[in-house]
Amino acid sequence: MNPYFARKFVIQGIFIATAVILLVRLFYLQIVNDKYLLSANNNVLRKILIYPARGVILDRKDRILVQNEPVYDIMVIPIEVKPFDTLAFCRLLEISKERFDRQFKKAVNQSIYKASVLEKQLSAKVYAAFQERLYQFPGFYVQNRTIRMYPDSLAAQFLGYIGEVNEKAIEKSKGFYAKGDYIGISGVEKSYEELLRGQRGVQNLMVDAFSRPKGHFAEGRYDTLAVSGEGLKSSLDKELQKLGEKLMNHKIGSIVAIEPATGEILAFVSSPSYNPNQMVGRQRGNNYMKLLNNPYKPMFIRPIQAEYPPGSIFKIVNALVAQQLGLINPSTTFVCGGGYRYGNRVMGCTHVHGPMNLSQSIQYSCNTYYGYTFNRMVDHAGMRSVEGYKKWQAAVAKFGIGSKLNIDLPNERKGLLPSADYYTKRFGSDKWTSGFNISLSIGQGELGITPLQMANIMAIVANRGYFYKPHLIKAIGANNVIKKEFTERINVGINSAYFISVIDGMSRVVNQGGGTAFNSKIQGIEMCGKTGTVQNPHGDDHSVFVAFAPRNNPKIAIAVIVENSGYGATWSAPIASLMVEKYLRDSITRPKAYMDRISNANLLPAVTKPISKPKIDTLKTKLKAKL
Fold first, then answer.
1. Quick check: is 405 in a domain?
2. pLDDT tens readout for residues 203-262
3. Last residue of a domain, one of 234, 259, 286
4. What pLDDT does 36 receive?
5. Whole-angstrom distance, CA of residue 407 vs CA of residue 473
6. Distance between CA 622 and CA 487 in Å, rounded?
7. Bridge partners (DSSP) listed for residue 58
8. What string of DSSP letters covers 320-346?
9. What pLDDT score was predicted for residue 45?
10. Whole-angstrom Cα distance, residue 313 to residue 627?
11. Residue 412 and residue 325 share a domain
């Protein structure tokens, strides 16, 4: 046989076989496997995303803090739009003609073939009126959504808010998020985003030329269901939170209350606050800018981001550390002649107290006592002062000072506990002694502590030496899952016996005449506390009070700070007292006028231009007497 003739048939066979394969594949794609019809003409099929409801957030008693309500997005496919009455359309949606023109042009620029959002988050009322006449507007259809709703308008900084994903979030999610999805931006909405968000579904609907649904394609075989997000049970007590926000009205500061036995946060007040409902709906963008430009910074999460010198409440930590180091005991007495002398300087005290033991030093908040105590810890611990300071610093750090407590919220700050190297660099030598940073003895100087850390110190004292990681979510999902990390006890390295005299002094602060917070005593409840007045280089001193109650088997530990309001006993102690009584009794026995005086007081400072924070010179600062 002619080899060229044989080759001809081989080549023809190859072409015929290829054609047959292509025909069979085409038949399969178009006839057998009808899922590829989903990419057919949009006049026949429409892909509708089903957005899941985010998980609800409850308080510790299963009362709703955050839930969802339906809203409706108006979608448009520009190529399907026919001439229509645009003014009537705009009236139905309650938008201007200028806005319609702008949004429609944006949709056209994006794609004339794909659906785009024309108007977001219509209310049920607006949607109902529009839906009746939807058939008059070919090319437009409605996409169902839900948004957050806050029945009591509480705990804005704790709950946080959600917003539309940006390109960076979409890329980071590796395809989970798509344009138009919402994501947690702050608060627990961000911390627990993966649990709250749920999973999108999709419906493939057949529609007619008027966008009217005509049933599911292929009887719904290619539809998927949306899966709602997990619900969260928070540790907050809604009524306690409500009281705290009321008492802090027109004030700058924080309230943090913790259940010592679990680390669960009972109240998380950041003031000034805002109505979280402002961060949802069609006015969200405008409201956000107003909040952002508010000079009192309501979006600043003060309980975990504001840092203050703790003032005299820090004497509690120094008293415990000094005992653990074996340098003082409950009987150790120092004589207060009105101040502590170091070199040719004096750190003043509020009074000439005379002889003071440990409990009395806390009761009367004696600065002199803690000047001598700090001197012993740093200068007379059997080593060089710089080494003594390092030992003191390590012991203080175990209280969670100078490091994050890793609460389940983003953007927590760690505060400041200066290192020995910091002072060596500052003073140009490592020969410095306690006199160079003596203000640390009474919680002033370079120290910076967040309100959360202050409250946690009280939880440590209430527990006599340990704490659980403070957290805002008590349980997750229908099975009430508790994170293991929230159940682990953290010891601070202080013998429980050393808390006895400290707690006795704290009880005297509130419950015995002469105590600096005696006016905040609660009849029938032994609250143990400590006042503090914190120097503020920008204006009036800050009022601070920390406490726990009752003395035995404590149920609540609390820290209150009110900026620019003076003595700790004047504002912070009364606020804490009311919060403690409310939590323990579920009622308040003090006269209504007592509470009204506090809640109606406006302590907001006058708005001034920002002032750069000056460097604190411990040596040159004239230390005020602190309570």
1. yes
2. 887 776 666 667 777 777 888 888 999 999 999 999 999 999 999 999 999 999 999 999
3. 234
4. 46
5. 10
6. 44
7. 64, 233
8. HHHHHTTS--TT--EEESSEEEETTEE
9. 74
10. 9
11. yes
For the chain, the domain total comes to 2
Same domain, yes or no: 443 and 496: yes
**Domain membership flag for residue 313:** yes
Count CB atoms within 10 A of the CB of residue 86.
13
Closest CA to 235 of 350, 63, 85: 63
Residue 529 main-chain phi, psi, to 5 deg? -150, 180
How far CA 349 is from CA of 252, 408, 569, in Å, comes to: 28, 40, 17
100 and 191 housed in the same domain: yes
Q: Specify the residue for token string 């600043």.
A: 300
- The edge-to-edge listing of strands for the beta sheet with 264-271 is 264-271, 253-259, 556-562, 542-549, 528-534
Helix axes 451-462, 499-511, angle to 10 degrees: 110
Distance CA 542, CA 535 (A): 7
Q: Read off the DSSP letter of residue 430.
A: S
CA neighbours closer than 13 Å in the CB half-sphere of residue 170: 10
DSSP lists the bridge partners of residue 491 as 466
C-alpha–C-alpha distance, residues 389 and 378, integer Å: 5
Is-contact 218 35, C-beta < 8 A? yes
The enclosing domain of 376 has a CATH number of: 3.40.710.10
For the residues of 579-614, what is the DSSP string, one character each?
Answer: HHHHHHHSS--S-HHHHHHHHT---PPPP----PPP
Q: Are residues 261 and 204 part of one domain?
A: no
End-to-end CA gap in the chain: 116
> Which residues lie below 8 Å from residue 339, measured CB to CB, with a gap of 6+?
346, 347, 348, 349, 367, 368
Whether residue 531 sits in one domain with residue 410 = yes
Distance CA 27, CA 32 (A): 7
Residues of the chain below pLDDT 70: 1-13, 15, 24-44, 208-213, 608-627
CATH code of the domain containing 55: 3.90.1310.10
Residue 422 included in any domain: yes
pLDDT in tens, 429-463: 999 999 999 999 999 999 999 999 999 999 999 99
Q: What percent of the chain has pLDDT over 90?
A: 70
Phi and psi torsions of 556, nearest 5°: -150, 135
Question: Strand 232-234 vs strand 253-259: parallel, antiparallel, or unpaired?
Answer: unpaired
Residues 242 and 173 in one domain: no
What pLDDT is attached to residue 614?
Answer: 43
> Rg of the chain over CA atoms, in angstroms?
33
pLDDT at 26: 63
- Provide the domain limits for residue 435: 238-273+302-599
Identify whether residues 245 and 146 lie together within a single domain: no
Q: Are 204 and 257 in a shared domain?
A: no
Q: Do 223 and 201 form a contact (C-beta atoms < 8 A)?
A: yes
d(CA 402, CA 400): 6
Contacts of 215 (CB under 8 A, 6+ apart): 205, 206
Whether 22 is covered by a domain: the verdict is no
Helix or strand (DSSP H, E) at 126: helix 124-131
